[in-house]
UniProtKB/TrEMBL annotation:
Domain HTH hxlR-type, first and last residues per copy: 1-73
Molecular function in Gene Ontology: DNA binding
InterPro entries: HTH_HxlR, WH-like_DNA-bd_sf, WH_DNA-bd_sf
Protein name as catalogued: Transcriptional regulator
PROSITE patterns: HTH_HXLR
Record's keyword terms, sorted: DNA-binding, Transcription, Transcription regulation
Length: 77
């Protein structure tokens, strides 16, 4: 996935924060960064096998967040 695609898919994140997080995830082996020798240069990011192994955990956290959000909305109403 290209940088701008990632940025559009994560609402509310600044370019600086996304860049910093991608670098950190690359350094820890969660994300692979591939630079293509093209003009203009093209860079794509993908999950490494280690990053892929986190999918079930992240999916569960997303489901929990959706459930929690619905519960809070019920409490406020």
């Amino acid at each position: 996935m290209r940088f701008n695609e990632l940025r559009r898919s994560v609402t509310g994140i600044s370019q600086k924060v996304l860049t910093s997080n991608l670098r950190e995830m690359e350094d820890t082996g969660l994300v692979h960064r591939e630079v293509f020798a093209e003009v203009p240069p093209r860079v794509e990011y993908s999950l490494t096998p280690l990053g892929q192994s986190m999918r079930p955990i992240l999916d569960a956290m997303g489901e929990w967040g959706e459930h929690y959000q619905q519960q809070v909305a019920k409490e406020i109403a």
